[in-house]
Amino acid sequence: GESVGLHLPTLSVQEGDNSIINCAYSNSASDYFIWYKQESGKGPQFIIDIRSNMDKRQGQRVTVLLNKTVKHLSLQIAATQPGDSAVYFCAENGLGDYKLSFGAGTTVTVRA
Amino acid sequence: EAGVTQSPTHLIKTRGQQATLRCSPISGHTSVYWYQQALGLGLQFLLWYDEGEERNRGNFPPRFSGRQFPNYSSELNVNALELEDSALYLCASSRGQIYGYTFGSGTRLTVV
């Protein structure tokens, strides 16, 4: 079936370095993508979203890249901080699909 | 504005019992979504309610049910609890399909 998945389950990053979290999706009809951050004991928190008519979108210290040709999504975090340690989920929503489908998540650990 | 609120925060039940989880969406949001997040796993879609009606459900048995009230708050009921129902149950709300979700902090259900 169609699914959203992340390439790596864990990512260890040195504080101050840039982080890149990858996500592959298989539903070619997906037209809306979101990255969420989930800290321990909390619900997922919206980070940034992107629609299929764009290939890049920037927020504060974060950038999402979308490559529809290879159905790949990535989240870049600039100057990673200890507070960025969390599980990151990509999610996608296809046209006519009224729910978000989530990937398994990547655990990011920031080393001091 | 107040976020999505869920109650209770924690719930401990015995196998075979019933659990009721509650969710209040953000004011103005008419859609409520329920997800199950087992320990260390991703988010599995359970149910979607909009304008008081169940619009879609995921691959869960019928003992998982719920409803949405006229004020758009929602309940998730889990009957005949099994040990594997132990998980974080997340509620999210949105204004509609083209928008992302806002999640609550979840209810941690433990079945013993």
Q: Cα distance, first to last residue of chain A?
A: 40 Å
- Residue windows where pLDDT falls under 50 for at least 5 positions of chain B: none
**Radius of gyration computed on alpha carbons of chain B:** 13 Å
Largest interface: A-B, 21 and 23 residues
The level of helicity of chain A is: under 10%
| Low-confidence parts of chain A | none
Mean pLDDT of chain B comes to 93
- Our Rg estimate of chain A from Cα atoms comes to 13 Å
Question: How are the elements arranged and paired?
Answer:
The complex is a heterodimer of chains A (112) and B (112).
Chain A: E1 4-6, E2 10-14, E3 19-25, E4 30-38, E5 45-51, E6 56-58, E7 62-67, E8 72-77, E9 86-94, E10 101-102, E11 106-111
Parallel strand pairs in A: 2-11
Antiparallel strand pairs in A: 1-3, 3-8, 4-5, 4-9, 6-7, 7-8, 9-10, 9-11
Chain B: E1 5-7, E2 10-13, E3 19-24, E4 31-37, E5 44-50, E6 53-57, E7 64-68, E8 74-78, E9 87-94, E10 102-103, E11 107-111
Parallel strand pairs in B: 2-11
Antiparallel strand pairs in B: 1-3, 3-8, 4-5, 4-9, 5-6, 7-8, 9-10, 9-11
Describe this structure in words.
The complex is a heterodimer of chains A (112) and B (112). Chain A has 112 residues and is mainly β. Chain A is built from no helices and eleven strands. In chain A, the strands form two sheets. In chain A, strands 2, 4, 5, 9, 10 and 11 form a six-stranded mixed beta sheet that branches. Chain A has a five-stranded antiparallel beta sheet with strand order 1-3-8-7-6, with no helix packed on it. By secondary structure, chain B is an all-beta fold. Helices cover 0% and strands 51% of the residues of chain B. In chain B, the strands form two sheets. In chain B, strands 2, 4, 5, 6, 9, 10 and 11 form a seven-stranded mixed beta sheet that branches. In chain B, strand 9 (87-94) and strand 10 (102-103) form a beta hairpin. The mean pLDDT of chain B is 93. Chain A binds chain B through residues 32, 34, 36, 41-46, 49, 89, 91, 93, 98-105, and chain B through 4, 31, 33, 35, 41-43, 45, 48, 50, 55-56, 90, 92, 97-98, 100-106.
